[in-house]
Write a structure and sequence with these properties.
The chain has 316 residues and is α+β, with helices and mostly antiparallel strands. It is built from four helices and 18 strands. The protein is flat, with a radius of gyration of 24 Å. The structure holds zinc ion (ZN).
Length: 316
Amino acid sequence: MEPINGGEGYLVLKDWNLRIKYAGRIKWAGKQGTLVIRFEDGRWFAYVPVSVGEKPARSNPRGYVKGIYEKIQIEKPKGGNKAFIDVGLNNLFAVVFNHSDTAILIKGSTIKAEYYYWKREVGTYQAIRDWLRNRGFKTWRKYHAYYLHAEYKQHERLRHYYRTAIRFLAKTLWQMSIDEVFVGYPYMVNKSNSNEYNVNIWWFNKIVNWLGDVLEEYGIRLNMVNEYGTSRQCSICSMKHENGRVMRGLYICPVTGIKINADLNAARNIAKRVGYEVPIPKKILSYIVTTNGVKPLTPMEGVTIETPKINPTSPR
Ligand SMILES: [Zn+2]
C-alpha cells in the first residue's frame, strides 16, 4: 500500500504490475497480510489484515503500513488484578480493585454540562424551524441547517470527551496491572423520559464498545455484569437492606452507618456479583474530563495525569 494522504493512496500489485487507487482511511499500523479485493453491492472493497505492532520482515521492508493509530501501543497485562467499573452520568467511571483500597472516580460533570448545552441549542433551532415552517416561511431551511449542525456538534463533543476518558482509564488500568475488567450493565428503572433514556443507553453501548477496543490494545479482557440491584444493595455489611439511602452521592448503610460513594458502592457490588471481595476504598483519586485531557481533581504529591501514584504490589 502506498498512502498519499490520510484518505487515499494506491494499492500496488507487483505481480500484475498494477497500481490501483483507493479511498479510505488506514486505521492500524503494522505488518501487512494478504490483500483481498471483493466486489460487494456494486462497489469494490479492499481488505488488508494488519498484524498490529509487528515490525516488517527484513526481506520485505515495504510490507508495513502506517495507520491513523500510529502510536498504538500493544501491551501485555503487567499482572492479574481485576477492576470493577460502574458507568454513570455523575461519575462516568467509578472503579474499584480487588488488590487495592484505592478507587478511581472519573467525573462526568463536564460531559453532562456539554450534553445539556447542546440539547438546548438543538431544541431552540428545532422550535424556530418548526415555527417558521408551519407558517410557510421559506427561511425554515436555514434553521434546519443550524439544527443539524448543533446535533452534529453535540455528538462530536461528547464523543471527544468520552474517548479522552476511555483512553485515560485504559492506560491507568494497564499501569495498575489489571488483566480483566468487569463493567456493570445498567438496568435503568426510571424510563419516564424515554428519549433521554434511549440517548443514555445508546451512549452507554458506544462507551463500552470503545472501552473494549482500547482495553484490547493493552491485552485487558472486558466482561459485562448485570447491574440490577447493585445501586441499592449495601457493599459494606453484605446485607440487602431495602432502606439503604443515597444522599448527595453517598450510600449510607443503615446498620453500620458507614457512608460510601454511591457509585463506588455499586462498583463493589458488581465485584461481589462475580465473586470478588474488594477492600473498602480508603483513597479515592478523582478526575475530571476536559477538552484537553483528563485532569486530577484531588492533586496529590507525585500524582500526575500520566502516572497516578498507585503501587499495585504494595502489601497491606
Ligand atoms: Zn449495610
